[in-house]
Amino acid sequence: MLTLGIETSCDETSVALVNKRKILAQATFSSVRFYRPYGGIIPEIASRKQFKFISLIFRKALKDSGCRSSDIKAVAVTQGPGLIGSLMVGVQFAQGISLALKIPLIGIDHLKAHLFATFLNRKEKIFLPFIGLVASGGHTNIYLVYDFDKMELLGETLDDACGEALDKVGRFYGLDYPAAVYIDKLFSLKFVDRGMFKIKKRQDFNFSFSGIKTAAVYKKTQEQRQPSFQKIVLSSFQYAIVENLILLLQKATETFKIKNVVCGGGVLANRFLRRRLQQEAAKREWRVLIPPRELCSDNAAGVAGLGEYLEKKRGFNSGEIEPYSVSKRD
Ligand code: KG4
Ligand code: ZN
């Protein structure tokens, strides 16, 4: 079933066409470069860019797929969580398409779409249940996933998301936005001081990164004159975050006796995190799935794929859907 996916939750305008979990085309415009002078995303600019580019990106994706608009059987759109102004652009656009083509409209949860992206362009069956980790600029969530419409949130960040913490600390140390990408590039295990940042062990499945974020800020005043000081602090900071994500995954897989692990979200593009997940998979006999790097950041293919999956599973009425800016709990 040819499904159109639309994702406009933050600073990417993305449109994709998916059929039977195969991506026929995806076009994405990122407005990230407009935020460099500010060191962080400006929601007002993001929503204006979404509005400016959505039609263009839709036409490009359709042309690249070689399909006609009349071939599209359903439209799936990110409903939230995300920036409300940006979400509204995508939801309105999708509603227009649904009305014009008389096809079902499916509202998709942004975080579930990150996990679903993992199963695209793969022949193997979707394996369930699994422990799901979404690590992005806005969220650090760990789930027990029975199915994509039956998920239990086990834990989440109590303060900053892991991508956000990396972006903020990196910026403080003079890197461009989004700084996490540049920390990934400069990271090396030879710079890591394992004792520099300690994340307190918790009884539950929640994350907290603000303590080490503050510690990283104080380090700057203490150790500035040391050579390679920036690389040592940032590599050690990234190391602490990655190891904390791995630790929570270990805890969840052991507690629930599930060896399937699926990860998604922008932070999963990180080379060290990807390597550590593969190492843990080999050591603990996990079956780990991570999307290819280009499907880690916000993308419409995951939205279309999940829309197709849910439509097939339970059917949806075409109707009104509303964007939401904060997570809805299942
Ligand atoms: O999923 P995403 O594209 O958007 C949100 O839903 O937030 O995630 C964006 C986050 C940003 O914090 C960005 O700096 C981070 O993912 N990110 C990375 C890498 N590439 C993007 N973090 C670590 N290593 C990377 N290579
Ligand atoms: Zn995202």
What report would you give on this structure?
This protein is of the alpha/beta class. It has 2 domains: about 5-120 and about 295-315, 2-Layer Sandwich (Nucleotidyltransferase, domain 5); about 130-290, ATPase, nucleotide binding domain (Nucleotidyltransferase, domain 5). Helices cover about 40% and strands about 20% of the residues. The protein contains 9 helices and 10 strands. It has helices at about 45-65, 85-100, 110-115, 160-170, 180-185, 210-225, 230-255, 270-285, 300-315; strands at about 5, 10-20, 20-30, 75-80, 105-110, 130-135, 140-145, 150-155, 260-265, 285-290. It has a 5-stranded mixed beta sheet with strand order 3-2-1-4-5, with helices on both faces. A 5-stranded mixed beta sheet has the order 8-7-6-9-10, with helices on both faces. Strand 6 (about 130-135) and strand 7 form a beta hairpin. Helix 1 packs parallel to helix 2, helix 4 (about 160-170) crosses helix 5 and helix 6 (about 210-225) packs antiparallel against helix 7 (about 230-255). The longest helix is centred in the last third of the chain and has 28 residues, at about 230-255. The two termini are about 25 Å apart. The mean pLDDT is about 95. Bound molecules: 5'-O-[(R)-(carboxyoxy)(hydroxy)phosphoryl]adenosine and zinc ion. The site of zinc ion has 6 residues, from helix 3.
Helix/strand layout:
Elements: E1 3-7, E2 12-19, E3 22-30, H1 43-65, E4 74-80, H2 84-101, E5 105-109, H3 110-116, E6 130-135, E7 140-147, E8 150-156, H4 162-172, H5 179-186, H6 210-223, H7 229-256, E9 260-264, H8 271-284, E10 287-289, H9 300-314
Parallel strand pairs: 1-4, 4-5, 6-9, 9-10
Antiparallel strand pairs: 1-2, 2-3, 6-7, 7-8
